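How a chain folds remains the central question behind the approach discussed here. For one protein, we set the task of working out the structure tokens from the amino acid sequence alone. The sequence in question and its structure tokens are set out directly beneath this paragraph.

_____
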Amino acid sequence: MTPIGLSMNASTTAKRTVLISGASISGPALAYWLHRSGFAVTVVEKAGALRDGGYPIDVRGTATEVVRRMGTLPQLQDAHIDLRRCTFLNADGSAVASLTPRAVAGGVEGHDLEVRRGDLAAILYAMVRDDVEFLFDDSIDTLDQSGHGVDVTFHSGRRRTFDLVVGADGMHSHTRESVFGPEARFHRYLGYCFALFTMPNTFGLSREVMVWNTPGKAAALYAVGDNDELHAFLNFHQPEPPFDALRNPDAQRDLVATAFAGAGWEVPGMVNAMRDADDLFFDTAGQIRMPHWSSGRVALVGDAAYAPSFLTGQGSSLALVGAYMLANALATNRDHTAAFAAYERDLREFVAMNQALVDNGAATLFPTTARALEQRNTMLRDLVTMPSATARPAHSALTLPEFASMP
């Protein structure tokens, strides 16, 4: 294929056309399943190229079955980080407990996967790049729905009409805002801000993570391999979301530095590294909760529809499962209204269970009071001698239907 389009002939003109906004995780996954069921798929991505790198993410529970059905499980197993140790530290840097990641996060050893976000994105992209049209360095400006389709004007000025449009453009989805309204209507703030960036591995860490805590603050150094780079993480409790800082990198750096002023361990060096980092990612911990994930011919998938927050560890898994379920619904139902209704009906309970993980204890890894911190530390010490043996049900609560053929 060419980077700007698919040739049109008798075999393609009859296909239903779908525009997907976003080429991270849910977008390419959805493109794979839609192409498999006979759709002509276009993916538009505002970045100039596929985004590589990024922090480690989990693929677990039902999502593991999705990637198995895609045929990508062996590649993801090869890319698995195989983190061996997670050490929690007191304010002075002394150890609270050192555990296996499975003991901390739950899951089933040998089944759950942890990979770099960029590795997962690259694997998904490689599966569809020869079959799907990608429009990089572009985005949707306007959407105009009618009885025959969705008229789309792109930022580049090009205009196209599609049968359906799907927003897979993340928690701060432009597609969602265009069709459903401002993010504030659907955003549930969870009381934390966080900063992610890379810094030199001057600590000799290898395939491990070290987590420092004081009430309301956490700092982590994450070594995904034996190389000279670390993923650094600074997380802090903030009662109200700092809206003014969300679009201002300098204000973000100042906010983080102020929050961690006077902190011990290696935190001062981490703050200095953050100020110099050219890959800083700052955001609030929050969820997207919507009464409906579709309107007319436009639907949402992944974080755009139901971001669970990093506190659940389920964002990428929900994106993969949601893409499968949406594509299956569209393959099963020729009418898009019936398809979108089936997508919501069959997936909403699974989404709700995973979003509820933050209410059912996941956020206790970042306690905000001294008492809660001591309770958390007691729990971690207990896990050293009695590790969790089974996955949390939310990860695997959905049994996937067999993928349908196009009606």
Observations:
- DSSP finds 13 helices and 18 strands in the chain.
